[in-house]
Design a protein that fits this description.
By secondary structure, the protein is an alpha/beta fold. The protein is built from ten helices and seven strands.
């Protein structure tokens, strides 16, 4: 009987959808426990100290493990003196509000086509005392890049495949002098990384950042000693390969913007 039960359980949880629901449930339980005990701040990584509404952000963001492969690139970006941050596809404001905290001289403009996400982003900005520093709007149009020509500008873009049509320096020349961190939605176009390299080769240095599962979870040992809970806590519910392109404008690197 025990063997039959094990086999039945395996058939259930070997199914991707069932496993995703189970681990998502466990992550939610852990979030409720940890946020209740430790508070609503990001605990680790470059955005540590950022406060988020627990109702609208998942546990990896509170832990600081979310998109952890971007931490090195972001640390380098924070050393540059940006005047403007354009966060296109800002969602609840994890990056928009987080970077506003860390770049006190920068103007942060956040964009999202979802009015609900816009409202949450504004609320998170207020939660961090940054309501006057983060301006939240709706759809970003390519022609708006020209509004920031000549500024030291960082663009963060996560728009579910729309990056293919939006980030075109042939149409919007101001992009040639901006740094960019772009999530690539490669399910919408094959060889997307190669396409971005081609588009920006004349103006930017680039790094293609591949998704990896966190390998150093030692900082979690004191709050989540069980390995299975550490794994569930870092689960990001991604359904396929994810990568990012970090693009550094040569003109910004040399101070010629």
């Amino acid at each position: 009987m025990r063997t039959m039960l094990r086999r039945a359980a395996y058939r259930v949880f070997a199914n991707d959808a069932a496993f995703s629901r189970f681990i998502g449930w466990r992550r939610s339980v852990l979030k409720q426990t940890l946020v209740g005990r430790l508070g609503d701040q990001v605990l680790h990584g470059p955005l540590a100290g950022l406060r988020l509404d627990p109702a609208h952000s998942e546990l990896p963001k509170f832990l600081g493990t979310y998109e952890h492969v971007l931490h090195g690139w972001l640390a380098g970006a924070l050393a540059r003196d940006y005047q403007t941050v354009l966060n296109i596809g800002c969602a609840e404001g994890y990056y928009a509000v987080g970077l506003a905290r860390l770049l006190p001289r920068a103007r942060v403009l956040a964009f999202d086509i979802d009015p609900r996400q816009q409202a949450i982003c504004r609320a998170n900005a207020e939660r961090n005392g940054l309501g006057g520093r983060v301006a939240v709007s709706g759809r970003f149009e390519g022609a708006m890049f020209a509004d920031h020509a000549g500024e030291r500008c960082l663009v963060l873009c996560d728009i579910e495949g729309g990056e293919i049509d939006l980030l075109r320096p042939d149409l919007w020349p101001a992009l040639a002098h901006m740094d960019l961190l772009v999530e690539l939605h490669e399910e919408h176009m094959q060889n997307l990384a190669e396409e971005f390299i081609r588009r920006f080769a004349a103006s930017h240095e680039f790094i293609h950042i591949l998704r990896q599962y966190p390998t150093d979870l030692a900082f979690l040992d004191q709050i989540l000693p069980a390995e299975q809970d550490q794994l569930a806590a870092c689960y990001e519910n991604r359904t396929g390969p994810t990568s990012w392109m970090g693009l550094t404008a040569r003109s910004l690197a040399t101070g010629q913007a």
